[in-house]
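User: Thanks for the earlier help. One more: Glutaredoxin. Can you show the sequence and predicted structure together?

Assistant: Of course, both are below.
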Amino acid sequence: MSTIREITSLPNWEHHVTSLPPSTLLVVSFHAPWAAPCAQMATVLSTLASEYPVTEPPSTSWVSINAEDLSDISETYNVTAVPFLVLIRNGQVLETVSGSSAVKVRNAIEAHAAKVGAPVLNGAATATDGHDGEVATEEDPEKKKEELFKRLGDLVKAAPVMLFMKGTPSEPKCGFSRQLVAILRENAVKYGFFNILADDEVRQGLKEFADWPTYPQLWVDGKLVGGLDIVKEELSNDADFFKA
């Protein structure tokens, strides 16, 4: 059965990628040690990998990457939050899955792993919905909303402090996001972030989930603090607001 290999350096990654035959599906899991959903996803992926036998040449290859330690690789694949899955074949990104939905991860891997000599999955044609290449199926709107809210519930707890912003800390796409990043840095706050411009489902859904219509949004311990004005107000009332 297949197992997951931890990539620990850029040369290690480059050697692994160049050693794979063009037909191999490369399953790349980006994680961070502080994010609890990543531990859950590691268990999911380990279980999935065990379902794929080791073949020659390999039909699949499974690797795990610390998104913070190997930030150059993370930036190459636009990793905006963890856990984050990238499926690659012959150097081409086939699909990405952001978040900790085991169902989405399994569906994506099964769809692409089956594409070599098997364009039809379980006798049913599949299609993409145009959003990160995810497999599209007809879904009850209420069920879809429930799944989205579950994903959002996991995302806001992905780190003790989570910033949902436009762009990334190194390249904010709006002035409010830039100011909030600066405040977090000034106060030496370690935080996770999510680029809402990279995922419209999260961008729109989080407004309803949080009952807060604008970005950036700062969450602490899974609870919404608010936007830039609220954070500034909290700091003016309590200089040690971020101390914990």
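User: Great, one quick takeaway?

Assistant: The chain has eight helices and 13 strands.
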